[in-house]
Amino acid sequence: MEDVGSGRKNVVFLVLDSLRKDRLSVYNEAVDFTSHIQGLADSAVVFENAVTQAPWTLPSHASMFTGEYPWDHGTNHTRSYFQGGQTFVSEFEAAGYSTGAITPNVWITPHKGMTEDFDHVENFLGKADNRVSVQLSKLGTKLLDSLDDGTRRVLGRQLDRLFRLFGVDDSTKSEETVAAVEEYLGQRGADEDFFLFVNLMEPHEPYHPPKSYADRHGVSEDANIPHRQKDMFTMDDIDFEELRTVYDASVDYTDDLVGRIVEALEANGLDDDTVVVLLSDHGQALGEDGEQFGHQFTVAEPVVNSVLLVDHPDTGPESEERPTELRKLAELVPYYAGIASRPEGVFSDTVKGGIEYPENFTGYIPKDRWDEYYRKYRYAKRDGMKVVKSVDEDGTANYEAYDLDAGTEVAVPDDLRAVVDEITSADHPPSGDAATDAAPDDEVDEEVTRRLEELGYK
């Protein structure tokens, strides 16, 4: 890791939700539609082996902001709000920076406790963006999380119906997000240091790229593709090839949105004083195994491998091959900004992560697939090997190991098995009878339509 130049820098921390590495020319030379991100990478430190600590937004961001694993900060499927704690954003505030967050992602909101260290927040929440709404939301979330699993699931199904009545907006608000970023950058004073967090949602489902991008990639208007997590369980004969095509069109659009943000930095004379940290909080499964879609139920490689590059105006291009956990950004970002000393122990031979039992998504899991999808996962990677531990509702563990270079399943090595076994758990143990009151029945499954829209997973 190259030493950075002297002096403080602004930071644009740009998270591209659900973006896969293999859809960028930075990591895949066959890709020809991500020229703007490639332009950043041409002068950036490109992290070749970055790994997320959780394959969905809230715990992944909590790990990035705090430097902790999900089982330490406790923000996960069973406590789906950030309870507070030291984040690296507070270091910028203490250093006199203006701190802004512009994101349409409902996980990164005051309602979820993730924006308390920012002095400017734009979530496009309209009337919901007020103190009373935030307090009621936090109280309701904490109350829901305090219930036993069986009660919470039954109540969650009723909330599904309520959210449907409100007609929740599932747009990604990308144009609004970029316009707000352009306005924010245009208002920065010459002597003002700032940290700006931006989240673009286009690589995340549902997929509705502008028509020009869909046409460019040959997206069929009547393609049988999933747009929400529920579709994975309810649609027959999903066209995964067409799904990958519309995903590419969305990434293409995302790349142009990134280009507009870079142009705004240049137009306002900020590019020479600003570090751009571009990453994905996790990737996305697009039917590689014949059925898996999304990221809520899997820790497969396309989901846990993350994009990460850092374009610093005072350093040249560099390729960083050492494994990197995204949680280390809590130390790296202040360092790149010039407000903290060079961190030690950023890289590790072993990288880890995991997810809890998917309480937020139980309304989507069909009864006959409950045992397959209601699972807790832990994963560890070292020297081209990966071990995945999955635990069912009864506490029975299953282990799988993979040679990542060969792409084959292998015997579970004792050392990595010990690593995943040593990982603690922040969740409360499952309760209730999964075979009776917990597992969703067919009638409820038909009624569930848009729960994840309110939760941020559409």
Describe this structure in words.
It comes from Halorientalis regularis. This is Arylsulfatase A. The protein has 458 residues and is α/β, with parallel strands linked by helices. It has one domain: Alkaline Phosphatase, subunit A (3-Layer(aba) Sandwich). It is built from 17 helices and 18 strands. Strand 15 and strand 16 form a beta hairpin. The radius of gyration is 21 Å and the shape is globular. The C terminus is likely disordered.
Précis, in short:
The chain is an alpha/beta fold.
Salient structural properties:
Arylsulfatase A, disordered C terminus, alpha/beta, globular, Alkaline Phosphatase, subunit A, five-stranded antiparallel beta sheet, about 450 residues
Topology of this protein?
Layout: E1 10-16, H1 35-41, E2 45-47, E3 50-51, H2 57-66, H3 70-73, H4 88-94, E4 98-102, E5 120-122, H5 131-146, H6 149-166, H7 174-186, E6 194-200, H8 211-216, H9 231-234, H10 240-267, E7 274-279, E8 285-286, E9 293-294, H11 301-304, E10 305-306, E11 308-311, E12 318-320, E13 324-325, H12 329-337, E14 350-355, H13 370-373, E15 376-382, E16 385-391, E17 397-403, E18 408-410, H14 414-422, H15 434-438, H16 442-447, H17 451-455
Parallel strand pairs: 1-6, 1-7, 2-12, 3-13, 4-5, 4-6
Antiparallel strand pairs: 2-11, 3-10, 7-11, 8-9, 14-15, 15-16, 16-17, 17-18
Region (Disordered): 422-458
Organism: Halorientalis regularis
InterPro entries: Alkaline_phosphatase_core_sf, GAG_Ulvan_Degrading_Sulfatases, Sulfatase_N
